[in-house]
Amino acid sequence: MDINWFHADYLPWLILLFPLVSFLVIVLFTSKNTVLSQVVGLGGIGVSWALSMVLFVKTVWAADPALGERVYGSSLDWMSLGAYTFRMGVLVDPLTAYMLLMVPLACLMIFIYSVGYMRGDAHNSRFFAYISLFSGAMLVLVLADNLLLLFIGWELMGFCSYSLIGFWAHKKTAMEAGVKAFMTTRVADMLMLVGIGYLFLEARTLNFRDILYNEEMLHHLANTDAILFGGSVAGLVGVLLVIGTIGKSAQFPLHTWLPDAMEGPTPVSAMIHAAAMVSAGVYMVVRMFPLLSAGADFHHFDYSTPMVFMGLIGAITALGAAVLALGQNDIKRILAYSTISQLGYMVAALGIGAWVAAVFHLINHAFFKALLFMASGSVIHAMEHGEHHAAEHGHGHAEHEEPDGLVMDYVAPPNDIQRMGGLLHRLPVTAITMAIGGLSLAGFPLLTAGFWSKDEIIAEAWHGMTNDPFPLFVLLALVVAAFLTAFYTARMWLLTFWGQPRTPAAEYASLGTFRKQWVVWWNKRGWNKDVKLMQEPTTARDRLSFAQMETPLIILAFFAIFAGFIGTPVYHALHDFLAPTLLEEPLKIDFNVVPMLLSMALALGGLALGWWVYAMKPLRQGEVDPTEKALGPGVWQMLQNRLYIDNLYRRYLLRPVEWFSVNIVIQAIDKETIDGVLETIAEAFTWLGEAFKRFNTVVIDGVGDGLPRAVGDFGAWFRQVQSGRIQQYLLYVTLALLALGTLFLVQVR
Amino acid sequence: MVAAGLFSIGLYGVLARRNAIAILMSIELMLNAVNINLVAFWRYQAPLALNGQAFAAFVFVVAAAEAAVGLALIITIYRRRQSVIAEDVDLLKW
Questions:
Q1: What pLDDT, in 10s, does the model give residues A659-709?
Q2: Domain boundaries, chain A
Q3: If DSSP states are collapsed to H, E and C, what string results for A57-85?
Q4: Is the peptide bond before A253 cis (omega within 30 degrees of 0)?
Q5: What residue ranges do the domains of chain B occupy?
Q6: A residues 685-724 near B, CB within 8 Å?
Q7: Is ipTM strictly over 0.90?
Q8: CATH 1.10.287.3510: does it fit domain B2-88?
Q9: Is B25 on the interface with A (CB under 8 A)?
Q10: What is the pTM of this model?
Q11: Do the chains contact at A727 and B90, CB–CB below 8 Å?
């Protein structure tokens, strides 16, 4: 069969193939050789990225404007079920193309970063194998043309997240975190699978084009009554699918796994929480949006059940996570809560019908969040380096006892922003790229990508707020969350990079020699002359790993700024590009200057407040964080302990299940019943065996031994006849003769 | 009758005497008794055939030879053990 693999119909197969193949190659062949594994891993994702750029060019610039109506794709016969054959394949429509702009690029950046970050780790090959599998799974999910293949990618990513979060398996906290992540998402996945199954039951197909682009199918699903809970099939399926996203994208109440997922290496956090896994959750509801909004006319403010569900959960999550992020001292946890909060934004946006805005924010968020996570990884690396040196030079202690198991308010010393400070001069590239990412996250007006996407969401919410309480609620939550986002971002950046180092570890923190050149230039300009820096030698290897870690940051920073310009109200190329994906034209509101000013004010206000609190008088060693002072110790403690939600789950869900499994399943069922039955059977057979043994010894051996003994005894007795005395022999002869003679005579007669 | 009586006396002697020479003598006695029997039967059954006489003569010769051998055996044993009691020669026992 002649397949032109470079035609857009077939190219997606190659895109998703390469990372999966590199996973297999690393696992099977190159796992002993770190460098080779890294090359294979990078090669896999690199080829994938190149091919996806080819595909992107084909679809965006070379294709016809009616891409939504006519899509690229190809499929295989997967399974025939009677008259109907279930097909699995790939699909490329505008949404997919837009995702393909982000996903392989972010993954490639993370791979390059990992080469530097994971240098020296003993399990490097395994790491690259897992992240290859992870990227492959994400690409499968993005390119899938039916819900089942998407779910396969979904579950594969769930497994990868478990193995990557628990990558350092010797750390008990990491293992617990991995299990927690997997279990929490599993709960959601169960319900999502029920939804998928029910959808298949009603729709007879899971293909996206057949369900979502099909007016009659949507109509049918929206008007058939569901078997449970009233409402329509579309509503029930929609709610179940949204539950899947709640787990995967860490929305309330299934958000508890994400902060603990910081136990994994930082590239993992970047990948899971920015580029891939949580994006997958949002991507799924974005993709299934026509189903979720079926039967409702949200242009006129009539929202369907799944939409209301999404809006409420998203808004609550966005606000709640932003509040929690205020109270964290661990740099990665702040970013984790910020991820949860931004995902809440996206889910809420979908809830009120702002489809394009949600997708836009998803892509932008992926860029700047990956950037932020990787920058924080550099900071942590530098701080660990610093701690090491500080211990060597005799300042401070290198020991810190780690808790045994997950403890809610424990912050590992290298991650603790209270111990940082003054890192701007020591890690300039990291500081600046993190500033760019942070500004994008906060939504700094006009320049950053984050602003445009956040503004669009707020604008859409504004548009609906006057007519319905639901958008109003969403708007209020998002507005407060935006303000808090800007504030905690400023807090994080300023506490990390500004002022003077608060601990010896921060004084000695460094990554490579670029700093020296920069500092020399900085000092020559006369800025901050009295900054004392500890000089230490760096090797070529350090410089290389520095370059490996910093380059992706710079590239992503570029995207964090410029990826936003395609979606402005003035130049709305994105909207025009994505709109044909949906059957029904997504909402396009008129430009209203009020929401834009509002979002500008929120971003600038939050950043200004952060500046005023943290930058005007930088925090010194030993001082209490102003936020902690403002909120008071009680609230602060509550925030540090994550509002005790994890403890709640532990006490009311985990403990009873553990009690049940230990006492009832293990003790009563397993040990007493099943083992009891087995032991009884074993005893019976043992008794039988003993009986056989006794039979053997007594009877069979008795006969077998007795006979020879009898014969021997007889022989011993009989041989006495041979006495050696002639006369006795002669006597016997005589007697025998007499006897025989008598017999003979008698016989004859 | 005479022959039977002689034979049984000889038999008793063989079985019951302690002295080896006495046993030999008893054996001779038995042989002679047998001879008497033979001759008697020849005389009264087939006096014309010569087989009977030849047979008797044969028996005489054998008896003489056997007596010689027996004596030689006893003398050897006597030389070894200084005694001629037959009961004591029981080396070929079990």
A1: 777 777 777 777 777 888 888 999 999 999 999 998 888 888 888 888 999
A2: 11-227+239-395+405-640, 648-736
A3: HHHHHHCCCCCCCCCEEEEEEEEEECCEE
A4: yes
A5: 2-88
A6: 719-720, 722-724
A7: no
A8: yes
A9: no
A10: 0.74
A11: no
